Backbone:
């Protein structure tokens, strides 16, 4: 009996200690927020709940700083080794913050590429809470219903986002964001990426065709459904293959799958597994991309003016109500306009690759025309966004 009581007390003390430690961490984080960030009124807080979301706000943050705005970059959670290089932000406060403390940060504008944030979790005193999409895909099918209810503004990538935002606002009373034509935050990085220059210098074996397989994530994507068979067939047919999984594949949930997949092919000299967190080299080396519903397919097509081979796996629809808008999502509509669409058959994929390999300029002019509609201000997103941000701040300066 005495040992049972001792054990019980030990467990209770341990739990109490853990609670105290968490409370102290929360309190110290709160103090850090007020001391470091709230010394003066921040013009703009840029926020990334995941490190990779920083990519889509990077050029806009830099441009805002050039315009003389007082900005800060915040990352959600604790600082880890897997973080973006922050030396590019010299002179700009960069902090890691507990998501529950974000609401207490004082700023005029709050901008994030992270989706699904509730209004209550964002800075309470911000005059505008702005979402800068981290993908060119639709807002109404690729994300769960209500994902964007907490935002005041959407920095639309293209005309499709403007139309989707207007329709959601008309249909759903809990959605009240307006859209501003801005552009795609990653465009300038793709246009000026150092890996683009180095990959162009990389030597390819004469006659070698490089394929990048870039799937989306979720049920029945091409990597999980036919990935191993597809890679084996491509390698056996003399292609050089890079598999570039969606960032979600590098989470704990997919770790066993990715480990097994890597072990199958890692010894093959013509195979590479690319982590999107490490850059976009494959997007510039590849001759052809194979994808399903991933937004990276549009990045490839619009930056390289090359067609994409889309595999018609079951639709990725995280919002079952998407059809209520009466708008065909871009990830469905563009498949036959910026590339070829085939069934998930190895034979059909190989036949399509033969066509795309022979007709190198196929659809290039059509893709360039489509880019004007689906990507506002191509190559000038940051300057356009900064101009609107300055205007928004000027409009709110008298409300404090």
Residues:
């Amino acid at each position: 009996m005495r040992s049972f009581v001792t054990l019980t007390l030990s467990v209770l003390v341990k739990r109490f200690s853990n609670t105290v430690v968490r409370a102290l961490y929360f309190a110290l984080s709160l103090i850090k927020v007020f001391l470091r960030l709230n010394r003066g009124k921040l013009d703009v807080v840029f926020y990334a709940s995941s490190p990779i979301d920083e990519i889509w706000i990077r050029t806009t943050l830099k441009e805002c700083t050039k315009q003389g705005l007082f900005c800060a970059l915040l990352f959600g959670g604790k600082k880890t080794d897997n973080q973006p290089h922050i030396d590019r932000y010299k002179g700009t406060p960069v902090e890691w913050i507990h998501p529950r403390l974000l609401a207490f940060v004082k700023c005029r504008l709050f901008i994030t590429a992270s989706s699904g944030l509730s209004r209550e979790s964002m800075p309470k005193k911000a005059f505008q809470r702005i979402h800068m999409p981290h993908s060119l895909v639709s807002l109404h099918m690729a994300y769960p219903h209500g994902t964007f209810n907490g935002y005041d503004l959407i920095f639309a990538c293209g005309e499709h986002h403007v139309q989707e935002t207007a329709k959601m606002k008309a249909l759903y009373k809990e959605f009240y964001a307006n859209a501003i034509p801005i552009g795609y935050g990653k465009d300038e990085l793709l246009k000026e990426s150092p890996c683009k220059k180095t990959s162009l210098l990389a030597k390819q074996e004469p006659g070698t065709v490089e394929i990048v397989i870039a799937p989306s994530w979720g049920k029945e994507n091409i990597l999980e459904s036919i990935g191993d068979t597809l890679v084996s067939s491509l390698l056996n047919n003399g292609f050089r293959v890079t598999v570039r999984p969606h960032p979600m594949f590098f989470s704990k949930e997919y770790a066993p799958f990715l480990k097994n997949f890597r072990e199958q092919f890692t010894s093959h000299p013509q195979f590479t597994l690319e982590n999107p967190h490490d850059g976009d080299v494959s997007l510039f080396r590849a001759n052809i991309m194979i994808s399903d519903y991933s937004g990276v397919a549009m990045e490839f097509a619009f930056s390289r003016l090359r067609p994409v081979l889309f595999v018609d796996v079951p639709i990725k629809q995280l919002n079952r109500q998407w059809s209520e808008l009466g708008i065909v999502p871009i990830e469905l509509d563009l498949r036959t306009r910026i590339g070829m669409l085939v069934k998930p058959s190895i034979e059909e994929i190989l036949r399509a690759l033969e066509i795309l390999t022979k007709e190198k300029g196929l659809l290039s002019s059509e893709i360039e025309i489509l880019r004007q509609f689906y990507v506002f201000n191509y190559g000038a997103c940051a300057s356009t966004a900064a101009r609107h941000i300055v205007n928004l701040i000027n409009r709110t300066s008298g409300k404090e």
Q: What stands out?
A: Residues 2-37 form the longest helix (36 residues). The chain has two domains: 31-184+380-399, 189-374.
